[in-house]
Design goal:
The protein has helices spanning 9-15, 178-185, 200-210, 227-236, and strands at 27-34, 39-41, 44-45, 51-53, 57-60, 64-69, 74-77, 82-84, 90-101, 105-106, 110-114, 117-123, 129-135, 138-144, 147-148, 154-156, 160-164, 174-175, 216-223, 243-254, 257-267, 293-295. By secondary structure, the protein is mainly beta.
Length: 296
């Protein structure tokens, strides 16, 4: 069943927000669907290579998906999300999306203008908007019910996070830590996707230069049981979606007994070929105890 024609803010987005000149209605092609087939265009189940055009709505339930806009930018939509295509920007009504490339986005509390970047936009259950700029710069214009508040735009720089309340109030900027990046890179907007991102190279270069430990690091675990246990427990502590680069094992004998230490280097490089075959058990590794765990 087709949705009703766009009204209110959605209609405004179709002709251009604020005083911006009207642009051609945007469209996007479905490039990948993960975790089942629950990606829809106007409530009709979508398939790969299908095109959606403004004012159509792209939504997900328990699936995730990747789209390519006619601008060349890519969008990765998380589960339980709703996006309406527009002209000057798309409208994120619910959920979370990663944008890579030159593509503006809107919510009812914010309009994001970009020149080409990687950012995440999330509409919370309370109607507020969370923005995380992974690389590049984003200018955020606060809105209230889709209309400008009159407050000056805020520039969110790479490695920063901001929040816009339902009243269009911008909170202070918070820096993204290496752990924040690890959680994002190992999370649902990256894990499992095989389609490329136009801004991935720029993101990796930024992280290599300014966020040490975001793309790769090492972790160690000391076990009283065996080398196998030490290495498996260390791998349990690696970020999701990371791969083993190499590992080293050492044995320490003392009055209290023998202890085994394994140090694992991990990376988010999907093309990585491990230099050493890691020790793996053929069953799920239990959560390790905090004893002997440390980052190095």
């Amino acid at each position: 069943m087709a949705l009703k024609p766009a009204t209110g803010l959605a209609a405004l987005l179709l002709i251009g927000a604020g005083s911006l000149p009207a642009k051609a209605a945007e469209s996007a092609i479905v490039m990948q669907i993960l975790d089942g087939k629950q990606l829809y265009i106007d409530q009709k189940q979508a398939v790969v290579k299908e095109r959606a055009a403004a004012p159509q709505v792209v939504s997900t339930r328990q699936s995730r998906g990747q789209l390519t806009f006619d601008t060349g930018a890519a969008a990765r939509i998380n589960r339980n999300s709703v996006m309406r295509l527009g002209s000057s920007c798309f409208l994120m009504e619910k959920g979370q999306v990663l944008i890579s490339g030159k593509q503006a986005g809107c919510t009812r509390t914010a309009r994001l203008s970009v020149r080409g970047t990687n950012y995440i936009m999330e509409v919370k259950d309370d109607g507020s908007t969370d923005i995380a700029v992974l690389e590049g710069n984003v200018e955020v214009e606060p809105l209230k019910d889709g209309k400008p508040t009159g407050k000056p735009p805020l520039v969110v720089n790479p490695g920063q996070r901001a929040k816009v309340s339902i009243d269009g109030a911008l909170t202070r900027l918070i820096a993204l830590s290496p752990l924040n990046y690890q959680e994002i890179l190992g999370g649902p907007l990256f894990f499992g996707f095989t389609g490329g991102l136009p801004g991935l190279g720029a993101l990796e270069n930024f992280l290599d230069s300014f966020v040490p430990g975001a793309l790769s690091s090492t972790i160690s675990y000391t076990s009283d049981i065996s080398e196998v246990d030490a290495c498996n427990q260390a791998q349990y502590l690696m970020p999701v979606n990371s791969k083993v680069d190499r590992f080293a094992v050492s044995t320490q004998r003392g009055v209290a007994g023998t202890r085994f230490r394994c140090r694992v280097r991990w990376s988010f490089d999907s093309t990585l070929k491990p230099k050493d075959q890691p020790i793996l058990l053929p069953w799920d590794v239990p959560e390790p105890s905090p004893i002997g765990v440390g980052w190095f």
